[in-house]
Design a protein that fits this description.
alpha+beta; 35% helix; 3-stranded antiparallel sheet; globular
Length: 83
């Protein structure tokens, strides 16, 4: 967290993505389908099997995540790729 505070202007995409992954338990592949709502983040689960419909996860925003939300650029984080 200290790194994010001191390097706020540098590479906000990666820092934001890492914070979301750490505080939610979300998988890397789920970031691209994530949407932020008032009390939760919804994403399409990465664990999809052949022949089954898409399954969506609702991940509640924890008090710990709420504390670091000012440091997260959700739009950039959700558009981050694995590259």
């Amino acid at each position: 967290m200290r790194y994010v505070k001191t390097h706020k202007r540098k590479n906000t995409t990666a820092a934001s993505a890492v914070l979301i992954l750490l505080y939610t338990g979300m998988r890397v592949g789920e970031l691209k389908t994530a949407k932020l709502y008032d009390n939760y983040i919804e994403c399409e689960t990465e664990k999809i099997r052949k022949g089954y419909a898409a399954v969506f996860r609702k991940i509640p925003i924890s008090p710990m995540l709420r504390k670091v939300m000012p440091y997260i650029d959700f739009e950039k984080a959700f558009s981050a790729s694995r590259d």
